[in-house]
Structures are given as C-alpha cells and as structure tokens.
Amino acid sequence: MTKQHTESAGKIESHRQIIAEKVGAVGDNIHIQHQDLSSVQIATINIYNYRDQLDPDDRRIGSPVAGNPYKGLAHFGPQDASLFFGREEAIQSLSSNISKNAFTAVIGPSGSGKSSIVLAGVAPYLAVQGNWLFSYFRASDSSANDPFQAIALALIPYLEKGADGLAKLQSAKELAQALFDGSITLLEVCDSIHQNHPQQKLLLIADQFEELYTADITPDVHAKFIALLVSTLSHIQQAQRLSALSMVVTLRADFLEQATSNPQLATLINGGAYIIGPMEKSQLRQAIEQPALLQNVHFESGLVDSILDDVGIGQGNLPLVEFALRLLWEKQIKGVIGLQAYHEIGRVKGALSLHAQNIFLSLNAADQKAAQRIFTQLVKIGIGTEDTRRIALRTDFLADDWLLLQRFANESNRLVITNNTDDVETAELVHETLIKHWPQLSQWLNESRLFLIWLDDVRRAMDQWHKHKRDTDLLLRGVALGQAVEWLDNPLVSIADNVNNYIVQSQQQEQKLILKSKRRNQVLGATALAVIFILIGLTGYLIDSRNKQIKATQLAETQRDQQLVTQSLFLADLSRQYSEDGNTRLSILLAMEALPDLTKNPATQRPYTTEAASALYTNLGDTLDSKTVYHSSEVNTLSVHPSGLQMITISIDDGVSVWDVQTRHKIHQLRGHLGPVIDATYSPDGRFIVTSGADGTARVWDAITGQSKHVLEGHEGWVIYSEFSQDGRLIATSSDDSQIRLWDSASGQSIGVLEGHSGLIWFAKFSSNNQLLASASDDGNPKIWQVGTKTELHSLEGHSDFVSYLAFSHDGNLVVTACMDGVARIFDVKSGKLVARLEGNEAPIIRADFSLEDDMIVIAAADGLLSGWDFKRETPLKLEGHKEEILDTAFSPDGQKLATASSDGTIRLWDLQTNQLIASLTGHMDIVNGVEFTADGSKIISISDDETARIWDLSSKLDAIYLKGHNDTVSHAAFSPDAKRVVTASWDKTVRIWDSLSGRTLSVLQGHTDTVNSATFSQDGKLIVTTAINGEVRLWDSLTGEQRLTQVTLNSTLYRPVFSHDSTQLAAVFDSNIAKIWDIKSGELVQTLSGHDDKIWDIQFSPDDKRLISASSDKTAKIWDTATGKVMQTLSQHTGDVIYASFSPDGDRAVTTSFDNTARLWQVKSGNEIAILSGHKDYPYAAIFSPSGDRVLTSSADRTANMWDAETGQMLFTIDGIASSFNIENGYSAIAISTNDISLSSSSGKILQVRDGWTISMLPGLFNHNGSNIITISEGNTIKVWDSTTGKVLRTLAQHDESIFHASFSPDGNYILSSSADKTASLTRHYALTDLIIKFKKLNIAPLSADERKKHYLN
Q1: Where are the beta strands (DSSP E) in 1000-1083?
Q2: DSSP state of 482
Q3: How far apart are CA 640 and CA 682, in angstroms?
Q4: CA distance 882 to 1071
Q5: What letter would DSSP give residue 65?
Q6: Sequential DSSP letters for 217-280
Q7: DSSP state at residue 1218
Q8: 36, 311, 497, 1290: which has the fewest Cβ within 10 Å?
Q9: Are strands 60-61 and 103-108 parallel, antiparallel or unpaired?
C-alpha cells in the first residue's frame, strides 16, 4: 500500500471513531449498538415507509462494507452512510437548518445527490444526536397517486403502535380521507405523534417533491395537498415555537418555477431553500477513492484524475460517476482498478449507455420489442418540461413484459427498480439519468411520444373512473373514444389489459346509450333526427381524424428529425471521447456519421448539429495524410531504405516485397526461402538486403536488382534475426538453435559461431564501432560478445524473466535491456556491471531504446505506457495514451520526435522536447506491428495485421506556424488583403512584416519611441499604419519599409487612424474632439470634422468612403459628408458616452454602442432609430454587422457577446465566457496611458478601458469572410470558433501560454491569426465544414466495420 493509500485509510478510521463517540442511546426507532470499531457497525436507523429500507438486522449506520461499495444509479440510503463521502460540510449545515426550521427545501438538478444527502447524510447525522423520529414518503407512493394516502402511510406508524400491515393500510386510508376533507388537520396529527413520543421530534422526508407535478394527481387533490402543507408549516413558523415536526423536501431545480407558482408555497420555499451546489474536485475525489479503500482496493495511478477530468465541475453527473465506478469495481484485478478497464466500459459518459445497450442487444428480437414497451411505460412525457421517470403499476404491463422487466431489475442489470408496497407491485427506472444518457431510450421516446402522451391522458381518465367506483359518466365518449379505438387497432403499439378493458367498457357504454336513444325516440321523425346527429358526429369525427392524420404525419417527420438529432448528439459525444482517448479514426468516423452529407440533397440527410461539427473539428490537429500499401495477409516486418525512397515489408502470404515509397509500386518480390520469412533489413549503405527464414537460412540480396547473392546456411533452427554491422562488412544472425553466427557480407562465408545461450535468441546487435555484439535471449541472460575474438565478454545478470529487447547507446558505452519482469536495466559495456534499474512498470517491458543523442531512454510496456529517463533534465519520462502494448518505437532523424506503434491499432507521434502528443495516427484496423521514419523525417511508415502498410506525410500535420522574433508582447497582428503577408506590432517598439506561408520575417519597421499597439494594412496592401501608446502614428510603405506622410505624423498626436476603403485617404482623431482627413498621396489636409462637444472614441469610413461616422462622449454619434466635412446626421438617443460606431456592409445602416448598456441601430440617410439592442448587463464596447448585414454581433464588458437580428432587434443567442481581452473588427490593440482615462490608440479600433482603477483590454467577436463563423478570445488563454447560426462552439484553440491580444480570420477564412504576451503571433489553418469533411474523406481512413456500427447503434 502506498503512503497516500495508508493516509487515506487512516482518515477513514478516524472518521469512524468520531461517529462512534457521538453515538448515544436514542428513541424507539434508532437502536444504538456499541461495537468494536473494526466491525464498523455503530448504530441502526429506521425510516418508516422508506421503500428501500433493509431488514431490521441490516439497518446499521456505517455497516460493514461487503461487496460492491458503489451504488450505481441508485441513491444512497441510511445503511450506506459509511460509503457516502465528500458531502460532510453540506450534511452538517443542512442538518443544522433542519433542526432549527420547520421546513427545508433541498433544491438541485437531477443527479446532484439530493436524496442521498438527506437519506445517507442528514438522517444518520441526526440519528447519532438522538431524539429524532424519521418517516418518508413520495407523492406517487400510493397506487392511486394520492399524496394524502402517501403522507398518511408515513405518519400512521407513529400513531398506532403494534398494528399489523393490513390494519395500518386501512387506518392510512381513513386518515388520508380525513386530511383531504379537513375533518382532521395535519397539525393535530403532529400533536398526537408528539404525545406518543414526547421526547422526540419527527423529521418527515418528502422525497422527489417534483412528483406532485409529474404524477397523475387531479388538480383538486393537488391544490388541497399543497394547502395542507402550507397551512400546517406556516402555523408552526408563525407560532415561533419548537414543533414536534420538521419537514424536508427534495426538489429538482427545473420544477422550482412550478412549485413557486403557488404564492404560499413560494414563501415557504424562499424561506427554507437549501441549494445543493456542485462537488469540488477534492470532494469528488473522496467520493471516488474512499469507498474502495474501505476494502483495501486502490485505483491505478492517473485513473481518478481521468475520471475527474471527464466529469468536470458541474451538476448532474454524479449518477454517471457512481455507475461507472460500480462497473469498474467488478473489473478490478488483485485489488487494483485499472485505466484499461475504465476505457473498456466507455468512461464516465459512455458507461451507462454501453451497459444498457449491451443488455438490450443480448435480447432476442421479441424481447427487444418488449423492452421498448417496458421502458417507454416507465417515462412520464414532459410537456414544456423534461421527460421524467414514472412509477408504473404491474397492471400497466402485459404479463410477459412484467417477467422481462424483473430481469432488468436484477443485480447484474440494475436498470429498473421494482417494489411491493401494501401488495401493490410497482416499477420505475433506477434513475432519470437513464432517460438522458441512453440514446436507445431517447429514440424510443421520440418514436412513441404521441402515443405516450395519449396513453398518459387515458390513464388519468381511467384512474378517475376507478376512484369514483367506475362511474359510467367517466368512460370515454365521442372523439376521445374514437382516438382510443384508433390506438387500440394500431398494430405498432401495445396496450396493457387494464387500459384495453377501459376502452372496451367505454365502447360498450357508448353502444348502450345509442340503443337507449333509439328506443326512446321511436316517435315520428325521432329516428331521422338521431341519424342526423350521428352523421354530424361521425362527420366531425372523420374531419378530426383526418386532421390528426395530417398532424401525425408532420409529427412523425418531426420525431424522425428529433430521433436523428438525438443520435447525432450521442455520436458526437462518443466522437469526443474517442478523440480524448487518442482514437482519431473512430472519432472522425463517428463525427462524420453524425453530420449530414453536405454534398447531397438536404431533405434526405440527417439534421445538422453543431456538436457533431465540433467533434469533427476536434480531430483537425491530430491527423496526417496517408497512403496505403495493400497486402494479402498480416504485415509483420518493415525496413526502410536509408534514402527513404524504398521499403521492405514481409507478410505471410506475400513474402518479402520491396516498394517505391513515393509511388507505392512494388519493385521486387524476393523469392527463395523455403518457408516463412521472419525478418529483413537493409545494409547501412542501402545496397543490400538480408532476410531471415524459418527454413534455417539467411539470404543476402542485391537491393537494386532484387537478385539473390548469398545463402547463409548453418543454423539448425529458424533464423530469427539478422543485422549488418555499422560498416556493412559483417552480418550477424540469431536462431532458436541458441547460436549466433557471423558472416562476411561480401562473400557470404561463415566466419564464426557464438555459443553460450540456452534458449531462443531474439536479437544480436552490433555496437557503433562494430567491435562488440549484444544478444538477448529467452534464457534471461543477455550477453556482450567480442566480435574479433568471437568470445563472450560479459553476461548481464540480474534478470528474473526473459529479455525481450536490448540496444547499445550510440556511443557504445552502455547497453539497455527490456525485460518481461517489468524492469529496464542499464549496464556498463566495459565492466558488464549494472549501472541503473528503471522500475515502476507493472507490465512487462517490450522495448527500451536510447535516443539518437543518448540523452534519453524510452521504455515501451505491454500496458501501453511509455516511460524512461531524460538525462539532460534529470527527470523521469512518462507518456500516456496507448491502451494496449507498444510493439515498436522509432526516433525521428533529428531526435526531436518519437513514433510508437501499438496493439491498439494506432501510431502516436510525440514531441520529445515538450513530452506532448503531436498526433494520434488512426487508420489501421488491427495491431500495428512496426513503425519507422524515412531518412529526411518527412514521413512515417507503419505496418499492421490489417494487411496494409501506411505511409504518413508529416508535412500535412496541421500545426500553427509561430511568428517568432519580437522581444516583448505582440499586441496586434493583421493580414494583408491578399493574406500573403502578416504585420505584427509589439511592445518592443517595433513592427514586423512576415511571409504568411513560411513564417519568415520580411522586414522590421523601426522608428516608434514607445510601445506599438496596432498595425494595419491599407485595403490595397501598399501601406501600413501603426500607432503607439504615446499617440505616435506612423505610415509605412509595406514593400520598402519607408515612412510616408511624415509631415503629418511626426509632429502630431493622433488616435484611431483609419484608411478609406480605396486607400487614398487617412482619417484620425486629432485634439480629442476633432477628426481630420488627409490625402495620402499629397499629404494635404482634406477635411476637419469639428462639432463634437467631448472626446471622440471611434471613427469609421462608410463602404463607399462618402461618409464617416464618429462616436463621442457627448452621447452622440455623427455622420459626416467626407467631401464637404459637414454633419449629415446626429444620432442622439443614447444616454451615455457613445464609444463605438460602424456601418452595415451596404452603408445604409449604422450601429452604435454606449455606456448606457445598449447598442442602437440607425438609418443612415434619415438618422432615424431602427431598434434598441438591450440585454447586456454591462456596456457593449463594440458592435459589428455580419457580412450579409442581416445580423449584428455586440461584445460587452459583461463578458458576453450577443447576436441580434438586424431588422427586428431581436436577440438570437448569447455567447458566454469571453475573456477580458477580446477580438474586434479588423483587430485592434491598445495600452493604457494613465490609470484614470480610456486610451483609444489603434488603427482600426481596439479599445483599452480603464474603469474604477482597473484595466481591461477588450476585443470583441469577429465574423469570418462569409459570416458562418465567429471568433473570440475566451477564458483560459484560448481562442474559440463559434457557429454563427447556433451560437455553439465549433473549435477551441490553445496556441498560446500567456494572454492573447488579438485573434482574427484571414480574408478568405482559411487561417486564424493570433498574437500574445508570449512574444509570438501564430497562424493556424482553418477549414469550412464542407472542406473539412472532404479533407478527412481523402485520408483514406478504414470505414466502420459491421461490429463497430452495431456497437455504436448505427444499424
């Protein structure tokens, strides 16, 4: 046991000790039993009417742990108190609230653990304090869905001691009726209980209080029950005295609005609300680890962190965590719960759906149909709310279906809970999480929604019929009966006997009424009149039926789309999980399955979901283009020519093949061996090939002609391995005859035999100076040999299992061995002594290698873990990602990358400078046996059991190009109009121009004397304008770097310089409240725009350059005629400083933003206000039109961006989580001049705000060229790309480690440009969704197999 595990176990024992010290004698229903603490049995608790109550002997608080300690989807009960961790603070504070108040409402989302906190936390906590009674009810507990009977059943045991079950049931019915009609009040009942138990207080637990709104409770019963609770609890509160009753309800947060629609109940809830917040990571860690530690079971290192990362910090996922843990418990090996098992079950989000689906798929066809009937009966369809679980009676099911339902309820399946209360059998889903997270059930609900809504209505009517002693007036009639008969005759649905009987009774009653009407109306004309009425009724029914058929068709289409959307969301979620696991192939394929084929007719395709598109974008940085070389059987050996232009592969059916890497054409087929060929490799100069065969020979071939040169005979068993010496003069072969033989490569003559091993020899490797040979054997004794004397130099001792691999360091001084005992050992070559043991691997080691510079050792293990040691940094190496054993490793020629091949079907590419994963290459459909780099490092070649070799192009890796050269923060970056160049501004007082394709610096612009905060190209790309925080403005020739317009810029303080769209004019703010326009070619002042009474924040030219708009602190915006300098319109409806203004793409409208927290839309020609965009909680500092002009995007200091309809002013959606540093139209950047003002020094608009002593650099969201995407700088130094239609995230980029100052799209939308405080700018490739799909299709990824389609519900 590790130190951490020991400490955790000690904390648990201390926790038990504290509980034990608190335990004392209490009343009738809590029996304290002092025990030896090692037994953990401390106290027993009885909560009357609690449906999951155990037998009396098992009602122990902190009872001994036995079996699986995780509850799965079930909530924790009082008997689980010793397993309930992480909520200690909430339990104490909630218990204190309950002790002091008559009413407490525990409110939280579904899955937040409300019931568990009360039943496994509060109740046991109060029990050890003594003087408490406990009783429990749910509004839907009774068979009649009568909350009066439910509460009566909870109270009767404390009124009548010793009564048997039947007597209690009868008494409960009488009490329920008395409470309903008011002949007995709940206050009187509480007083009576207090008389029976004068020293104790009753805690009445009303669990899942939302069932008052979901169960089939009639309105009058519902209203009276609420009134009963309100009057009783209000009286207790107003009396301001300690009462014998305290009530606690658990309520789902999404039903809070319905609950508080009753003013009196709202008052109670508002005064007694206790909100269940999300568990912190430390609390969730306790909940995960501590129950296992009670049985001395531990989690593999990193597993708990993976679970925490998967679940995140939020509400509603706790049942999924518990369910995953319950499955993991069953997969523990020798007291350890492993990472591999976690991935096998589908991790947190996939465990439940995979478990439920596997159960479903195990059924035969008939039972699968029955399963659909069963599970849909257990759901209450929400109208305006989410679907919820429903307590169903046994009579709601067909007889055979009930038998199957009981199978779903058994311990191994645990999808359903069955109960038998007062001889009434019921069933319900184990948790509502099943509704949300099992796509099969979601699909069934969407398919059956219309039927289930109708069935719910019929059941409600049937219940009233039964409640009123089968009053015939409550049977179905007219249109309602016609609908029922339609459903009864529908072969696609099944109706239980009780509902069937109700419909039949209704039909019979209808027939009786018709016959009775005929007999009563046999006078003249009566029959005709009756027929007329019948025909009128029938016509109305037929019309209604036809309308319903049309609606049903429309609903069916809607349901189909809903079903497909549900499936798409599920596939997208799975795709993201596979991406996180490094399985790029499945991630891409499932994401593409979830998306419509954008090249085909939309009417025939599934609906688009942003989530599926986002899942596909997730893989954008993890893919490489590859070409496939097909074989007829598994490919098990690979060797790449030193030039990288050819390769050798070996497969059983094809033998030895030589291929051209560029064309993938076969050059030679090497034939000659009389059996399977086991190994092949090139000579160091690439002129020859040596092959090893099961026929006991090795053969030397001419690599150019493919002709056999020598047959190396002499071994008495299979030749396992052959290798050329580094100078190519010698060949060493090893065999299962326990011998190594040395050969002259030129003549093929044997020059010696090395004997000493007693088993199969896996490898025989030459040192770099060719003087030594190291060998690895399954006898567990690797050896070093002197080549010249053919004698053993050292036996490398200390291995406890066979050695699977070994390698010399490149300087020849060390040897590393990989052993199946899980230890890598390093030996000194001269002495043969052990230098170091690299331990920590629990799995056998497959391979161990030195890096090319000998500064690192990489160890590959059978469990998929890469470990080792970095000699330069003197730190251990740990690279996690593969799920199964690593079979091969290869260093890139520059030593900076490592490629690994695994049985999990993937190749992973690692950056050894950062120890980060560069890419997970998925395309193979089976074990990957080998991997190698080409000599120039531009390609990776892999071989697999899927009968292919693949050639991966590293140049296709979609990494960002980083523009490095500045010595300080890069405050701004901008593309040239043709996107071929990028300009950057920096705090190092310089401006740089870069080639956007290569990232090469083209020129450095020097001349600013202070921090440069913006740089922007003119529209023709010939000029660049830059600004500094001291008000300096510089105009540069973008090709020569020479300054222009110096007579204006060198002696002036200017702000907000902007180019006209035709690049002939430059405008800027001059002297705070004046704007000026200059002719760029002549340098002459064209116009002075004077008229604002306070400083100007922003100016912009109209698209045709005929107008200019300015925004000012005088609370106005002005539109100027650029030809005359006159004011055309003054926009004066704002009540605060106007800080931003821009034109629509057609120039007909304008938008302004203000410190009054609004943006406003205007008609440019008339100056009339079109709409007020109101909704931000703080001021919007920018607003831009979409390229089409139909939408406006505002960005606000409240850290949100809102999308608005530009015609109506209606808000379409909100984007949250925007960072305090944003992106804006064309990009801006600015730095504060002082701490009490707002600086506007930018080429095209970034505003730096200084408010109330704090500084915030703001850059709002930007559209791409066609308006389909939005880009924002978001929290956590990330850049996010959003779908501009749905407002959902498509892509998240983490390109910088420090604050991001700028992010924008290139003019064509194909690149994302960003700049950062990390002194760099970056260029990242971006794709439109259609182009991305086409790109991934070109990767030639192996399609989903039939089994994979079945596993992911795609049949």
Answers
A1: 1001-1006, 1012-1017, 1023-1028, 1033-1037, 1043-1044, 1054-1059, 1065-1070, 1074-1079
A2: H
A3: 7
A4: 63
A5: P
A6: --HHHHHHHHHHHHHHHHHHHHHTS--SEEEEEEEEGGGHHHHTTSHHHHHHHHHHEEE-PPPP
A7: B
A8: 36
A9: unpaired
| DSSP strand pairing (336-337 vs 388-389) | unpaired
CA–CA dist 235, 232 (Å, integer): 5
pTM (2 d.p.): 0.57
pLDDT of the residue at 399: 83
Asked if residue 281 lies in contact with residue 308, where contact means CB atoms within 8 angstroms, the answer is: yes
Distance from the Cα of residue 313 to its chain's centroid: 12
User: What pLDDT score was predicted for residue 884?
Assistant: 84
47 within 8 A of 53, measured Cβ to Cβ: yes
Q: What angle do CA 13, 19, 23 make, to 5 degrees?
A: 140
Secondary structure (3-state) at 313: coil
What the block records as the tokens of 746 is 């030129």
Backbone dihedral angles phi then psi of residue 1003, each to the nearest 5 degrees: -160, 160
Residue pair 1240/1230 in contact by the 8 Å Cβ criterion: yes
d(CA 571, CA 435): 16
List of the chain residues with pLDDT < 70? 1-66, 141-144, 161-166, 240-243, 312-317, 383-385, 411-412, 421-423, 516-560, 562-563, 582, 598-599, 602-603, 621-626, 955-960, 1049-1053, 1220-1260, 1353, 1355
CA atoms within 13 A on the CB side of 542: 6
d(CA 552, CA 1054) in angstroms, rounded, equals 67
Tokens matching residue 1141: 């203004």
Q: What is the DSSP letter of 765?
A: E
Task: Tokens for 561, please give them.
Answer: 């789309």
Residue 627, pLDDT score: 72
Residue with tokens 């080639």: 995
DSSP-derived letter for residue 1214 is E
Distance (Å, whole) CA 1056 – CA 1247: 10
Torsion angles phi and psi, residue 183, rounded to 5: -70, -20
Token digits of residue 1096: 């100007």
What is d(CA 864, CA 907) in angstroms, rounded to the nearest whole number? Answer: 12
Terminal alpha carbon distance of the chain = 47
DSSP letters for 883-948: SS-EEEEEE-TTSSEEEEEETTSEEEEEETTTTEEEEEEE--SS-EEEEEE-TTSSEEEEEETTSE
Sign of CA dihedral 929, 932, 889, 784: positive
Instruction: Report the distance separating Cα 1305 and Cα 964, nearest Å.
Output: 20
Cα angle: 67, vertex 72, 77; to 5 degrees: 75
Chain position carrying tokens 């329920």: 176
In this structure, are residues 856 and 850 in contact, taking their beta carbons and an 8 Å threshold? yes
Q: Three-state SS string across 1119-1131, please?
A: EEECCCCCEEEEE
Read off the DSSP letter of residue 244. S
User: What pLDDT score does 242 carry?
Assistant: 54
Structure tokens at 694: 């099961």
pLDDT of residue 168: 72
Q: What is the largest CA-CA distance in the chain?
A: 132
Instruction: Quote the pLDDT of residue 754.
Output: 95
Q: What is the rounded radius of gyration, in angstroms, for the C-alpha atoms of the chain?
A: 39
3-class secondary-structure state, position 135:
strand
Q: Facing residues of 961 across strands?
A: 1323
Side chain identity at 673, as an amino acid letter?
Answer: H
Instruction: Say if residues 275 and 262 touch (Cβ distance below 8 Å).
Output: no
Report d(CA 3, CA 521) in Å as an integer.
Answer: 94
